[in-house]
Amino acid sequence: GENVEQHPSTLSVQEGDSAVIKCTYSDSASNYFPWYKQELGKRPQLIIDIRSNVGEKKDQRIAVTLNKTAKHFSLHITETQPEDSAVYFCAAITDKLIFGTGTRLQVFP
Amino acid sequence: DGGITQSPKYLFRKEGQNVTLSCEQNLNHDAMYWYRQDPGQGLRLIYYSQIVNDFQKGDIAEGYSVSREKKESFPLTVTSAQKNPTAFYLCASSSGSEKLFFGSGTQLSVL
Predict the structure, then answer these.
(1) Is residue A8 reached through a cis peptide bond, with omega within 30 degrees of 0 on the bond before it?
(2) Chain B residues in contact with A3 (beta carbon < 8 A)
(3) Facing B97 at nearest CB: one of A6, A42, A95
């Protein structure tokens, strides 16, 4: 079955800097790659997603890139703000959604 | 903040006891899921259902059971066979199998 690895497990950045979170997946048949943000004590919420026929997608300060050959995808957050502090999960899907282990991002003012 | 509702928010289980976590959605979604969240281990799939009266085991189904008698409801029972039940349980639903909408979760603890 699908296996998703996510790095780093924790990430600390200064406000205004960029943050990058990377994920790899094992099943080449995976065709959909969402990213979820979970703030402390709240439910995970979808922030951006990408399909296997697209290499990059942007939405304001966040972007996701996909390298199908290498089977990895990354989340990029630019101009980070304290409210970006949360746990971020990547996921990949074939017949069901499998999540990575999460990255705790801390943005310091 | 509607759409998918989990209850209770907190639940305590005594040893040898079965407990049931409720999940209800009014989004008319066909698919529903149960995930377990432990610190540092992300979200692990327990069971999922893509249609009424049908469900499949996820990666960590042992010690759990589910039913899907109605489209709106997907309750999860944590049985006494689950020896380490303390975790945060998240229910989710989707119209296909992609964009998941999560409930607010149930924190289960053992007395």
Answers:
(1) yes
(2) none
(3) A95
The reply to whether B10 touches chain A by the CB within 8 Å rule is no
Contact call for residues B23 and B33 (beta carbons, < 8 A): no
pLDDT of residue B2: 58
Please report the DSSP string for chain B in residue order.
--SEEEE-SEEEE-TT--EEEEEEE-S--SEEEEEEE-TTS-EEEEEEEEETTEEEE-TT-TTEEE--SBTTB--EEE-TT-S---EEEEEEEESSSSS-EE---EEEEE-
Task: Note the pLDDT tens digit of each residue in B26-65.
Answer: 999 999 999 999 977 789 999 999 999 999 999 999 999 9
CB B86 within 8 A of CB B110: yes
| For residue A34, cis peptide bond before it (omega within 30 degrees of 0) | no
Q: Are A102 and A21 in contact, with CB atoms under 8 Å apart?
A: no
Give B15 to chain A, closest Cα distance, Å.
27
Asked if B90 has any chain A CB less than 8 Å from its own CB, the reply is: yes
